[in-house]
Amino acid sequence: MKKLIVFFLTLSMPFLFSLPVQADETCMSPYIAKITGQEDYVYVWTLGVEGVGDEQDKLVTIGANPNADNYGKIVHVLSVGGRNEAHHSGLSDDRRYLWAGGLDTNKIFIFDIHTDPAAPSISKVITDFADVTGGLVGPHTFYALPGRMMVTALSNNVDNGGRTGMAEYNNEGEYIATHWIPTDEDLRGATKSGQFADGYGYDVRVKADLNIMLTSSFTGWSNYMMDFGAMLSSPEAMQRFGNTMVVWDMHARKPLKVLDVPGVPLEIRCAWNPDNKYCFTSTALTSQIWLIYEDDSGEWQAKAVADIGNPADVPLPVDISITADDTGLWVDTFLEGKARYFDISDPHAPKQVYEQVIGSQINMVSQSWDGKRVYFSSSLLGNWDKTGEADEQYVKLYHWDGETLEHQWSIDFYENGLGRAHQMRFGSYAMYGKLNPYIESVQTARTQPSEEDPTRIQTDS
Amino acid sequence: MWRKTQVFGIAAFVWLIELSIGLDVPAQTSGTLDSGQHFDVSQAFGPGDVKEGYESADYETQSRSLLSRRGIKQDLIQIVENPPLGLPPVAFPADNPITRAKIDLGRLLFFDRRLSINNTVSCANCHIPEQGFTNNEISTAVGVEGRLVIRNAPTLYNVAYLQHIFLDGREISLENQVWQPITARNEMAAPSIGYVINKIKRISDYDGLFEAAFEGRSADIATVGYALASYQRTLLSANSPFDRWYFGGNEDAVNESVKRGFSVFAGKGQCSVCHQINENHALFIDHQFHNTGLGYAVSTGKTAAQKNKTTSVQLAPGVFVDIPNETIQSVSRVESFNDLGLYRVTENPADRWKFRTQTLRNVALTAPYMHNGQFATLREVIDFYDQGGIPNELLSPFIRPLNLSESEKTDLEAFLESLTGQNVPRIVADAFAAQIGELSKDDPNWAHQNTLGF
Question: Same structural domain for residues B126 and B190?
Fold first, then answer.
């Protein structure tokens, strides 16, 4: 029987490793192998909180396969030392490593998630990010390009403001180059198309088929580390936010055009269909969906295409997630704790079709490739989250049938002594030609071979 | 804010002209950079991330490249040994005479983020050279892990003359003072003095420097203080247009508005009662503490912002909304902090809400103003004092309604703007050339696998 299992696994290997190069949850690099089926784990990059557990940042692994006996449970916690302002994370192009950054300490933790997907380990810690990059501070987005990891930064080490750049690393975690965001003084060959060229950074995404890379803009260390209430009350601080996106030549890493997108454009989500020559972003402060698109003349443009809630109420849109078929966009609004679903079939006129309150606060959203499973987490920034009882910290899974979110499970990150739950990334044994050992059928197959139904041990790939 | 733009712009323009003439002449005649050096002096007068006019929908960025923020090391001992016009001689502590080696070492320490617990915060995080050695970009300072500092970072220009250090006067010397921000939990949060000393000893950048500066003595609680104090003592700035007029006798150094403003300052406004001017020099301080009512109002919830149910918050250029204070409170951790000023040190109830008089030198470069950074512009400060501060039982007797006319306020503002020192570019150029201490591969791996090491 074991030989038979090996035979079937061998048959499946070529398919496992010849998958179309797309992302699992629908918002990551097209250069990453994707999970089209069932994810086994959700890796949650979690902020340590004073007074909660061991008070330090950690990578929390949650069982996500409903057929496994660890489904909806915390299966592993890896404390990394310090409160680094854990924020975003991103997978390497081979999906064997998860890079996760600290916006405060500039540390980058590279986790091995393939040796034992249920128990990630630290492979490398980059501690000299600011030094080698020429002063970049706040490693944010980790975005895989072939053999490379593009790391956007939020700030700099001379005035702690928003002027910054991107750092390019190889997969071994070695620094390659710094790509500065254009400023008025040094547009670096780009065109300033409007009023702004602030030099700020935040997210990065590519439309690889068009050789286009996009970056967005947030704010500097002084603001993102500051108490949210104090910052809102400081007129000076509220002037230090990004109002730009930059269109880059992806291969040349050269900025082409600076677009005005006022009100803090954060996450960038690009359409998957090669015919859809556009990406979306949402502006956190002005609460709008913006379309960044190539017009009929081949010129990249930006325009606001929808309001998110009532902008005058400042619902504070944060994470967004596009569906794999480019027809839907999830938009989380932090202050409302609400998830909204927009029909973006007409990208120039998105329409909200659904909304639901997920918790007292909300930040990240990650959906499975088929869009049927949608995970939400709670934390925005260590000093921006709500206080008191409204400071709920969670990861929640919902099922989405196209019309309604149906709650499946929640994990309380405070009750479990973990901290603030931030970004979620998926893991799967199938990515590495392995079987989920926590599925009963696999365990049974290993001990009691069943020649009648050898496919029982197969998982989606 | 547009006025600040004008100040920066005019000052930069003037300096550009002066430097274009004086670049190749000896430093003592140019009075700016060391001889033969080129530095874009416009960088010295405000944030490189220029936000003037941001209130308007017509705002356009004028952002500078970080790559152009390059300086030239200056011989700062010349400044402190021969203070610029308008400043008195500096008195050095008997146990800490000034030397170039100490200044260089102090500069290295000042910009070293590794002195904080998590290698993220240096002195320069809050005292940013081109922002008047304060921070123009936030009202109150931010420490390690974003922890709240309840006060606006004070400028370091001319701290050599202070008798009381900190706005509540709790320290007596710069040498002692340096350890407070390094070890304060909400600033650099180093766990102990010994830990920092030991860390310094293990950073190769400091190899031999303490020994060279202190006759063989290595880093310790005193020498770290001596070095940092020595650098800060060199940050003397004067020979402003006002100085050249008032002390130098150059009638053309300032315009008539400045002269009228000085009359208001020393006369009807009675500003000089606290911001004193002596016969041969002016520090614009009285080494005393005063209650203007501002701290009282904040502590007792009586500021206009606190009384309102909403706060106007800017979302983008030209875009403002009124956010309910309840919403702001829901994401705020500041409610338990009341700043009682000198009382925090003396616990004398008569000292409640008293703060040390701050210098007015370079005041055009050090916005936002007051102990909590509450006012964005000099005009707001003038208006506050013109209304007589905020009444309370401990209000300083020197604070009373002034009934200034609009033209008097304008002139007073012009006077304050004339107090920008001529050598600001030189000091900033020197600071720009400083090494920023960051974790590097040469360091022990205390960023991730730290040990006590002692």
Answer: yes
Q: Which residues in chain B are contacts of A264 at CB distance < 8 A?
A: 316
For B57, the closest chain A residue by CA position comes to A195
Strands annotated E in A86-120: 86-91, 97-102, 108-112
In this prediction the pTM is: 0.91
Task: Specify the amino acid at residue B37.
Answer: Q
Q: Which two tokens stand for residue B393?
A: 């039982």
**Are both B372 and B279 inside the same structural domain?**
yes
Cβ proximity of A300 and A281 under 8 Å: no
How far is it, in rounded angstroms, from Cα B232 to Cα B229?
Answer: 5
Query: pLDDT for A229-257, tens place per residue?
Result: 999 999 999 999 999 999 999 999 999 99
Q: Is residue B59 part of a domain?
A: no
Kindly provide the ipTM of the predicted complex, given to two decimals: 0.91
CB contact under 8 A, B447 and A107: yes
Domain span at residue B355 reads 241-295+335-417
- Of B369, B292, B339, nearest to B132 by C-alpha is B369
**CB–CB contact A159 B49 (8 Å):** yes
**Position B29 pLDDT exceeds 90:** no
Number of domains in chain B: 2
Any idea what the CATH number is for the domain that residue B99 is in? 1.10.760.10
Cα A102 from Cα A82, distance rounded (Å) = 10
Pair B164, B281 in one domain: no
**Chain A residues 32-71 with CB within 8 Å of chain B:** none
Is B315 domain-assigned? no
Shared-domain flag, residues B78 and B186: yes
Q: Within this chain, do residues B405 and B351 fall inside the same structural domain, yes or no?
A: yes
Q: Which of B332, B368, B376 sits opposite A227 (nearest CB)?
A: B332
Beta strand residue intervals within A113-147, DSSP E: 121-126, 136-145
Residue B58: inside a domain = no
Structure tokens of A435?
């079987």
Q: B314 lies in a domain? A: no
Contact present, B97 and B214 (Cβ < 8 Å)? no
Same domain, B202 and B342: no
Q: Which residues in B lie closer than 8 A to residue A84 (C-beta atoms)?
A: 118
Task: Kindly report, residue by residue over B242-286, the tens digit of the pLDDT.
Answer: 999 999 999 999 999 999 999 999 999 999 999 999 999 999 999
Q: How far is B263 from chain A (nearest CA, A)?
A: 32
